[in-house]
Every structure is written in structure tokens, then in C-alpha cells.
From TrEMBL:
Residues 62-73 have a biased composition (Polar residues). Residues 74-83 have a biased composition (Basic residues). Transmembrane segments: none annotated. Pfam families: Zf_WRKY19. PANTHER family: EMB|CAB89363.1. The lineage of its organism: Eukaryota, Sar, Stramenopiles, Oomycota, Peronosporomycetes. It comes from Phytophthora nicotianae P1569. Signal peptide: none annotated. Residues 115-138, 142-162, 163-186 form the WRKY19-like zinc finger domain. This is WRKY19-like zinc finger domain-containing protein. Residues 62-84 are annotated as: Disordered.
Amino acid sequence: MTSFALPPLTVLTHFALSPRSGNLRDEASTPTTPAASTPKFSLAFILDDNKALLSPISACASPQSVTQSPSPKQQRRSPKRKLTAKEKRAARQCCIDGCTNYTIDRGLCFRHGGGKSCSMPGCTASAKHRGLCWKHGGSTLCTVEGCTRGAKSRGLCWSHGGGTKCSVTNCQKTTISKGLCWTHGGGKRCAFDGCKRPASQSKQNFCAKHQPKKAKLSVAP
């Protein structure tokens, strides 16, 4: 039998077996440190032993640097402008054009649908308490025995001491407006020159005597 001699084993110096991948790779062409633009999930980044630890993001490391806008409750509200007496009066009037009555409910006076009517059949008066007007028991009666008037305050009517007393010293009368009774200047006076009788808004600020009379409609023959 003829024997053959094997050639000596040649060591490949340009290629080395990577212990991690199990494949041949060119170490001469592979950089030892990945570039700044090398993706983190690339093979060159994972196999590099000399990679530096990434510095934490400054925004995450310092939570105090993150500024938050204040909530609406924390913001100081601008002070509201005070309404004038004329604006307050207009806000309390009925929203129907030309109506000067005060509102009761939903911006309407009683005549235009504001408030509730008396629950008694046929009664169109405004309900005070328990769905009834003052004529049908909707108001609280005076606690004085035998008195059928409505109570104003402390369970008493005006005649028996209910209501607020006049601010004038030693005056026991009930106030009408501005802390004064009628004798000491409380309430409205008639707009007619020289008349000191009581006036009301329903009579266009005149008394019953000087109230402007409505023109009668003449019927043509």
C-alpha cells in the first residue's frame, strides 16, 4: 500500500473564530468601538466588549426640570366688576320686551309664565307655600289669637310687631325701605309735584289719585 504524507497545517492569521457567534468574521475590518450612529440592536453593537455605558437622559434624571402648567383652580381669577344699580334693576326685570315687572322664575314675571299658580281650581294668583296663594292658606298666619293676617317675621304680622323696626330711635313702626318707616321717609312717594302719598311701580310711580288713566277705546258707530 502506498502512503501519502499530508501537508503541514496552515494557520489562518487573517480570520478568527468568534466565540460568541460561531462564525468567521474579519476582526481587522470591524471597529473596536461602535460609532455614535450605530444602532443599539445591531450585531456590531452587541458583540463589542468595549462599548461605553450610556449616560442617562438629563430630562429623566432631573424631574424638577419638567415644568407643569398650573391648573385652572390654581390660577388667580380676575375680580368681577360690580354691577351698577341700573344694571341690577335691569337684571331683575322680566325678559319680555316692554315688561318692567320683576322676575319670579326662568327670567319671567308671574304674568308671563314665571312662578307657579295657586292649585285651587279657578284661582290664577301666585302660589306662596304648599302650592296655595295667601287667600287659600298658602301663607303663614299671625300667631296672635284671632288675627287672620299673614305673618311677616317672628310669627307676627305688621300690626302685631312683625317685620323690621324703623331705625329711628323710639320708633316702633315697621320699616318700608332703607331701614325707615313711612313716617320717617321710607317707601316711594308720588311723582306728582307736591304729592306725598304712597306710590308704586305698578302705578308708574304715582299714587292712586294721580295715576295716569288708560285711554278708553272708542267704538265706532
